[in-house]
Design brief:
Elements (H helix, E strand, L loop, with lengths): L4 H15 L5 H15 L3 E10 L2 E6 L11 E7 L8 E8 L6 H10 L7 E2 L14 E3 L1 H16 L4 H15 L3 H12 L9
Antiparallel strand pairs: 1-2, 1-4, 2-6, 3-4, 3-5
Length: 196
């Protein structure tokens, strides 16, 4: 299989979008999906996992209809480019075994990877289950950032606020996002009460 130039362009745009959070990721994913559907046999979708400030944010185009159908995958590690960039991975899925073999060679230079792409290693004998398509983890990330803002307003430095939130999390036995949500709930006015 020759990798179509449109697919290479789509993968390059996705790579650029992940480095630049201002780009229109939805439009880029739409174009990339069209290119992948035309170039990859039985293309099912992709999952992008970004680790931002230690919290995973997952963007998935897969849905429950893909459960158990993945027979091939290509996972690419996304190394951060600069101190503010997010690390993570993007995994492509197909219902046709071996669908990504040739693309894996090109993906190494498209994404400027330092390591090799991973083919089919995380498939479990066809028993793959996918969450519904969409974005997961963004609400928890937002809650954490808002809670850090509250702690900064209380007099903590940004690093001190992160440490205080982590300390409260450890003390309560809850995750950091759960602790952040609790802190935000504690400062919210009761239902029906007006803020002064």
């Amino acid at each position: 299989m020759d990798v179509p130039p449109e697919l290479i362009e789509g993968l390059t745009l996705l790579s650029d979008a992940l480095d630049d959070p201002v780009m229109d990721l939805e439009a880029i994913l739409s174009v990339l999906t069209d290119d992948l559907v035309s170039a990859i046999p039985s293309y099912l979708g992709l999952i992008i996992t970004l680790h931002i400030d230690g919290h995973p944010i997952i963007v998935s185009t897969l849905d429950g209809a893909s459960n158990g159908r993945a027979r091939a995958s290509l996972m690419l590690s996304l190394a951060p480019h600069g101190p503010a960039a997010a690390a993570g991975s993007v995994a492509f899925y197909s219902g046709a075994a071996g669908a990504f073999i040739e693309l894996a060679d090109d993906a190494r230079w498209i994404f400027n990877l330092t390591g090799p792409p991973v083919l089919d290693r995380h498939l479990t004998g066809g028993r793959n289950e996918f969450e519904p398509a969409g974005i997961r983890g963004l609400t928890a990330h937002t809650d954490v950032n808002q809670a850090i803002g509250v702690l900064i307003e209380e007099g903590h430095t940004p690093d001190g606020a992160r440490n205080e939130l982590a300390r409260r999390s450890a003390r309560s036995g809850r995750s950091v996002p759960e602790t952040a949500l609790q802190l935000l709930d504690d400062i919210a006015p009761p239902d029906g009460a007006a803020e002064v």
